[in-house]
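Hey L., structure's done. Input below.
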Amino acid sequence: MRIATQAVTRAGPWLAAASLGAGIARRDCALIAAAGPIALAAFYGRMDADAPVDAFRAAVRCIAAGAGSLAAAMILAAGVVLAVQGLWLPAHDPYLAGAVVLAAAVGVLVRVMADEQDAAAGRWLLPSAATAGGGALALVAAVEPSGWAACALPLATAALMGLAGWRLLADVSTGLLSAGRRES
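Output:
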């Protein structure tokens, strides 16, 4: 698993772009949703390695990542709402390949955040990931899932991305700014 997280950390932006592009091309909301956790895992994995010298610049990077995560969550949630309303018709893969990619992306995000010893995130991230996994199992177990049920995982991912973005904005960047004031 550590090798997979290191690969996502290094190639994360490219993997996120590939997932987003494949999801748009295939009209698969799970592949589109997988781009968010991949990008966020890449950010967390490189956060310390690329850390600027001063806390202010690190806080600005966290603010940008948090705002991007919140924006991605809102766009993803809007896409799911459009799918439920029938205004956008995603193609649902009968083999749930997109759901597998999404579950793997969330798993890598959980692992990277655990490697970062982000205990505060672990309190909400692990239960959220377990809920999303339970939703995926319920979807697979359903005999005749409805058209919008395939978007349950992307909706859970949107909530996860929103929480992660809010945490980066409210907690991490604020802590970095406070640390920067103490250093001065």
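Residues 17 and 58 are 24 Å apart (CA to CA). The chain has one domain: 2-183.

-- N.
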